[in-house]
């Protein structure tokens, strides 16, 4: 749902987001530089969340693509080389669990092994266990700390190398 400028426009949101993260780098900057040129797909049906995560990750040098549905995300994954996925669990039509299961069954070995974080408002043990069983490597809840998100991505990448 995009709003036009007469309704507050997304540009205003971006300015607020950019200002709200000034001087808020993670205290533990362990290998945060590893996000340089990292190709990330963020999947969420909430536009504000997509903008927020995009601004955070681009500030650390990542190249971010976004999708607002599992179907759109699956097309991006088929068509582009990606290094990392951040996927919301609760989305209309198809949820994040289903999306990650489809990704994990792809024939392309590189694509089916793309590391993924579930980023969701669901904060239950059952949801967390299902996320790991479905194929996610990490699970973070909303609202999230921008530094924690960046550090979790960096730690995972460092551990894989």
TrEMBL record:
SMART domains: REC (SM00448)
InterPro entries: Bact_response_regulator, CheY-like_superfamily, Sig_transdc_resp-reg_receiver
Organism listed in the record: Brasilonema bromeliae SPC951
Occurrences of domain Response regulatory (ranges): 39-157
Leader sequence segment: none
Record-listed 4-aspartylphosphate modification sites: 88
Protein name: Response regulator
Domain of life of the source: Bacteria
PANTHER family: RESPONSE REGULATORY DOMAIN-CONTAINING PROTEIN, STRESS RESPONSE REGULATOR PROTEIN 1
Keywords, ordered alphabetically: Phosphoprotein
Pfam families, A to Z: Response_reg
């Amino acid at each position: 749902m995009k709003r036009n400028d007469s309704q507050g426009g997304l540009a205003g949101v971006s300015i607020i987001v950019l200002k709200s993260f000034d001087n808020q780098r993670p205290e533990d900057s362990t290998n945060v530089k590893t996000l340089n040129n990292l190709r990330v797909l963020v999947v969420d049906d909430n536009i504000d969340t997509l903008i927020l995560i995009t601004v955070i990750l681009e500030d650390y040098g990542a190249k971010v693509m976004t999708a607002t549905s599992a179907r759109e995300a699956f097309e991006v994954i088929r068509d582009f080389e990606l290094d990392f996925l951040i996927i919301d669990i609760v989305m209309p039509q198809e949820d994040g669990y289903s999306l990650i299961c489809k990704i994990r069954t792809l024939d392309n070995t590189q694509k089916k092994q793309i590391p993924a974080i579930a980023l969701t408002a669901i904060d239950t043990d059952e949801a967390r266990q299902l996320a790991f069983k479905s194929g996610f490597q990490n699970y973070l809840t909303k609202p999230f700390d921008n530094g924690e998100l960046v550090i979790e991505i960096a730690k995972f990448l460092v551990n894989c190398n």
